[in-house]
């Protein structure tokens, strides 16, 4: 890929930098979302998993929570993030996970802005950051994946910078893969794209000698990155987990976060696609075919599984920034030039005093936020009243629960029948459970007997509740707008 000189960024006249300002705005905005970041049932069991790991000083390799899969092999690939979330919750309540989410997201956007300013003028860098922000919002939740967002941005920024300078990334940078691999299973994508960047460098080489140089530069980095990714308690099992998940066809079609985006409502991905088409068709922006291929891969992932849209949003600007930087300068309206002049004084690196002032501001805002406890707003994943009713009635035996209630049951010390760890339960179990509770098969009575179920906890107004209402030997114990409890007569 042809080298494009980075823009020369002036020193910040105000001591602070544009990336720091972006991070601060993002931090305050996300904090303002408060309990809205807690709308995920898995946050509950992630906290309990973190507690278990800290108490036992070990990472579990078998199920420790459920009543249906006790002792089954389990790859706890998010163990490191869980050990961060758990003590924050125990010390600060729900403020802790929310604060961590805000800080991680703000760091990712600040790093993205800094990386884009290597190639783009401030207005264009901010535009790229804004698209990433919008694409990440639907999946911005207090769960382990959010801690990998800064790692994701730094990894791809380093790959892009290395390619722009016709070299491989420094070998020491491969160590970042160890951190990523212990935080979340998405690190496999980082390894894949490192190989794609190496392939791009090999394609761009014009002579056999240059191709040998490319191999000598990139092969050690790729090998070391793969080795670094294995430095986890899960070893090769962690590396294979994403491939196992991709083979779970039923789970990928049934679980909401793995489904395709629903374009019956406005989706950030739809807006992103419109902007991309406008840039290509109206402004005539062009990319090397290798970068187009990378973008198409990320777009395919986002169209197949809506949770991947945030990756497309964060990575796409880094893939295209160098190639479109010169092209964008041909389309500079006067207003954009004036804005660039305004932002120019903030585009440089901050002074030491400015950095200290910004860190103090972040710390001050965090302290104020932690001093005012928030409560988790009532949601469809927290059947607190139903559990209280079951406890008051002294129900006994294992429970069969709605998929979305599994995390809260674990949080309350009750082994669930099923929860958000789809990889643990496997495709066959999930398929049998979903089809039985939706009335597709007549397997529900068999499941209840096979697992010696003493009571059920299903979401209100679902097919499972209707089936339980008409099942001989069972009666309603409790019902509200969130959930319904049935017990054996």
Overall description:
By secondary structure, this protein is mostly helical. It folds into two domains: 18-367, no CATH class; 384-488, no CATH class. 59% of the residues lie in helices and 4% in strands. It contains 21 helices and four strands. The protein has helices at 18-33, 42-56, 79-92, 95-116, 122-136, 149-164, 176-183, 187-204, 208-229, 236-246, 249-254, 268-281, 289-304, 309-328, 334-344, 352-370, 384-392, 406-411, 422-437, 444-450, 463-469; strands spanning 399-401, 455-459, 474-479, 483-488. Strands 1-2-4-3 form a four-stranded mixed beta sheet. The longest helix is centred in the first third of the chain and has 22 residues, at 95-116. The N and C termini lie far apart (72 Å). Residues 1-9 have low confidence and may be disordered.
The string of secondary-structure elements, in order, is HHHHHHHHHHHHHHHHHEHHHEHEE
Terminal Cα span: 72 Å
- Shape estimate: globular
Query: Strand order, biggest sheet?
Result: 1-2-4-3
Number of structural domains: 2
Strand content: under 5%
Considering DSSP H and I runs of 4 or more, what fraction of the residues is helical? 55-70%
Largest sheet: 4 strands, mixed
Helix/strand/pairing class, anyone?
mainly alpha
């Amino acid at each position: 890929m042809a080298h494009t000189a980075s823009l020369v960024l002036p020193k910040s006249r105000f001591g602070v930098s544009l990336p720091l300002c972006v991070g601060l705005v993002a931090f305050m905005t996300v904090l303002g979302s408060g309990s809205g970041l807690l709308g995920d049932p898995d946050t509950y069991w992630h906290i309990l998993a973190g507690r278990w790991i800290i108490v036992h000083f070990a990472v579990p390799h078998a199920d420790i929570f459920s009543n249906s899969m006790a002792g089954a092999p389990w790859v706890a690939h998010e163990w490191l993030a869980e050990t961060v979330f758990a003590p924050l919750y125990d010390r600060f309540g729900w403020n802790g996970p929310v604060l961590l989410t805000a800080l991680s997201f703000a760091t990712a956007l600040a790093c993205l802005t800094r990386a884009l300013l290597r190639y783009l003028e401030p207005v264009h860098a901010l535009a790229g950051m804004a698209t990433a922000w919008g694409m990440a919002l639907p999946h911005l939740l207090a769960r382990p994946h959010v801690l990998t967002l800064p790692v994701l941005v730094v990894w791809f920024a380093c790959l892009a910078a290395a390619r722009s300078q016709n070299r491989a990334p420094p070998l020491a940078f491969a160590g970042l893969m160890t951190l990523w691999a212990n935080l979340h299973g998405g690190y496999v994508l980082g390894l894949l794209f490192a190989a794609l960047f190496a392939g791009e460098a090999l394609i761009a080489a014009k002579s056999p000698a240059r191709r040998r140089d490319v191999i000598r530069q990139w092969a050690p980095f790729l090998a070391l990155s793969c080795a670094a990714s294995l430095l986890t308690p899960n070893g090769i099992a962690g590396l294979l987990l994403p491939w196992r998940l991709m083979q779970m066809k039923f789970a990928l079609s049934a679980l909401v976060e793995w489904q395709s985006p629903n374009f019956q409502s406005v989706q950030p991905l739809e807006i992103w696609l419109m902007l991309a088409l406008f840039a290509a068709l109206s402004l005539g922006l062009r990319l090397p075919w290798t970068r187009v291929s990378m973008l198409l891969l990320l777009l395919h992932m986002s169209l197949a599984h809506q949770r991947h849209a945030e990756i497309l949003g964060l990575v796409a600007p880094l893939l295209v920034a160098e190639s479109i930087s010169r092209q964008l300068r041909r389309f500079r309206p006067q207003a954009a030039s004036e804005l660039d002049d305004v932002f120019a004084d903030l585009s440089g690196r901050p002074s030491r005093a400015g950095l200290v002032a910004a860190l103090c501001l972040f710390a001050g805002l965090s302290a104020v936020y932690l001093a005012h406890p928030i409560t988790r707003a009532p949601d469809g994943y927290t059947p607190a009243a139903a559990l209280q009713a079951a406890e008051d009635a002294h129900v006994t035996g294992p429970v069969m629960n709605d998929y979305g209630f599994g995390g809260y049951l674990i949080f309350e010390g009750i082994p669930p029948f099923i929860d958000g760890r789809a990889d643990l339960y496997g495709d066959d179990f999930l398929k049998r459970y979903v089809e039985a509770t939706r009335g597709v098969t007549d397997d529900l009575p068999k499941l209840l007997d096979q697992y010696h179920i003493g009571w059920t906890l299903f979401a209100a107004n679902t097919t499972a509740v209707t089936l339980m209402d008409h099942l001989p030997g069972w009666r309603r114990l409790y019902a509200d707008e969130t959930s319904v409890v049935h017990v054996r007569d």
